[in-house]
Amino acid sequence: MADAVYTAPGVLTPSDRKPAAALRTFGRFALRQLLGRSSLTMAWLAHDPRVRQDVLLMLPRKPPATAGALRLWAESVQRAGRLSHPRLLAPVEVSAHEGWPYLVCERSAGAVTMAEYLSGHRPPAPAEVVDWCVDLLSGLAVTHEANLCHGDIGLHSVVIDRQGHLALWGLAVSCEAAPDEMPGSTGALERLRAHAERDVAASGLLLFQWLSRQSAFDEPDLSVASARLGEDVVRLPFNLPHPVPEALRAIVNRAVDRHPRRRYVGARSFERALDGWRQVQSADRDGPLALLLDRLRTAGHLPAQPGLAQRVVQVARMENRRVDVLADLVLQDPALSFELLRMVNLARFGAGKEGQVVTVRRAILLMGVAGVRRAASSLRSWPGPLRGDAVEAMQAGMRRAWLAGHLAEVLAPGGLDAESALLAAQLQHLGRMLVLYHFPAEAAQIHALMQFTPARSDTEPAIPGLSESAAAMAVLGVDLPALALSMARHWGLGEVVLEMMVPLPLGQMVHTPVGQAGWFRLVASCANEILEADELAAPLQPRAFGLVVSRYAKSLGLTSDEIRASLIQARVLLSQHGLEPAKSPLGSADASPDGPT
């Protein structure tokens, strides 16, 4: 059986089109074929006798009402036409015929509109669709950054060349300004913002359509569908021509979310999420590391905490002191602890030695004080490249990791190495700390998506917060544990560490572990779940603590009173380092009204 051909919604296939008795004309142009239209614009394949070749012709469905409006339209379209970007198709003519404005673009050899392309090709694979959308958003972001808009993104206003690259054309053709509206005025800026939001929403709907082979709301006109996004729920179906990975599904669903506050704030953030997913998919099993490689070279892994120089001097004076005293000093700085483990495990691997080093104490025994000094000297001083609110968020993330570590230390059953439990709990925060340090803007987006938004009115219902995993995938294209695991493999940490640094799934029963790594993972997961419960609003805490107690009843046998006592003890340990516990930098007490999700 021949492969099915993807017929885009609202697009006529060649066999559907009836030959016209005579060509229609528009000014000097002979209109050969209607390529597509929406409620705002129409696109034609036209023949231009002046250059003796076919061209792309676009005009608004409704002409400007006055001569002043026509002049403003021409100025806006001409200004958009001066943008230079490989994903934007520059016009060769902007003019008007009998009061009706139009734009002309060259039709390069082999280039067709997406409407034409999809009518003759098989359903595209998700990776190909993402490449298309990244191209589109790249051009759209440049447009918005120039204080311009497209105004009518659709299958007829996107062209694809022989190499499979997309370009937008018809910029600003549908964006009519009011005749009395001055550029830069409040009204003009508000209109531009609304058009830009509609552009981004239409891009999300186009991505949805490419993956699902159907239009949202059964409405092929994306300008109309964009206006309906707030009226109903749009979610990517599961019965699709090609399986869609969970992270990509999260990105698509965020792009077409019913609530505007959950959607992408702009074309650039949407593009970064898709490009992040693309980088992860194109690499090997440590694909998430591709997001970080360039940043690691310039900013390091994580920044040392303030006072690193003083700690190094203290270490130098402790040549003959007990190892546990040295270890306690090193453990005050997660970045230094992780760097020491990285160095010692890479050194052992390079020397062909077996066995993994999973504690700072053993790392100090093997590397000596000189090794600790080398590890410290390799770290970037605080706060690295971070500035402003990002510094405060990073500090809060570090403090939360410390508190989780001390809580795991307190919860560790007798016979279980408390330091390893502490490191496991801190390593379960590695993904968050990497995002806070290397992607501060994206960390802020993740934080915003996790917030519970109360109802503002009867017409604006409450918006539940996303889980951290869903929010991270929607923003970065990868979840935080996967990012942390990739970094740990990059550091040369072995399977024991990799096992204990992955939090236990919240939706599954907790079983009594078999090996030590399993116990470290369990205690660390319990500690972090307790912190999540403690950060909820006070009325929600008893239920959340009860869930933790029931989850770990068989393995740890904790009670709610013991949990609260352990929290107090962990805070005392934290205060001994001159630190105060901080709220979660990515989620808050109101992240979910029903507790951790």
From TrEMBL:
Gene3D superfamilies: Hypothetical protein af1432, Phosphorylase Kinase, domain 1, Transferase(Phosphotransferase) domain 1
Key words of the record: Kinase, Serine/threonine-protein kinase, Transferase
Superkingdom of this protein's organism: Bacteria
PROSITE patterns given in the database record: HDOD, PROTEIN_KINASE_DOM
SMART domains, alphabetized: S_TKc
Keyword Iron-sulfur: no
MF (Gene Ontology): ATP binding; protein serine/threonine kinase activity
Domain HDOD: 302-507
Every Protein kinase domain range: 29-278
InterPro entries from the UniProt entry: HDOD, Kinase-like_dom_sf, Prot_kinase_dom, RNase_Y/CdgJ
Record's keyword annotation contains Protein biosynthesis: no
Protein name as annotated: Non-specific serine/threonine protein kinase
Organism classification: Bacteria, Pseudomonadati, Pseudomonadota, Betaproteobacteria, Burkholderiales
